[in-house]
Sequence to fold (72 residues):
Amino acid sequence: MPDLDGIETLIWSRQKYPELKVIIMTGMNQEEIWKKAMLSVSTDFITKPFSYEQLRGNLNLYLPLESENNGG
Fold:
């Protein structure tokens, strides 16, 4: 979206879809992103560079496994 930055897009998305879960991936330092994330109602954030395990851990918090949805 050329007219919005990531935080503005997040705010717009959460206003339109309040149940939306959002994990911000950022290169900013933690203090900067915590302030912006808290103000923009993000679900969570992960700071670059990150490992596959870190990303998977964050995703597992918010995305149920397919087998859990099917009772298996």
User: Anything to note?
Assistant: The longest strand covers residues 23-26.
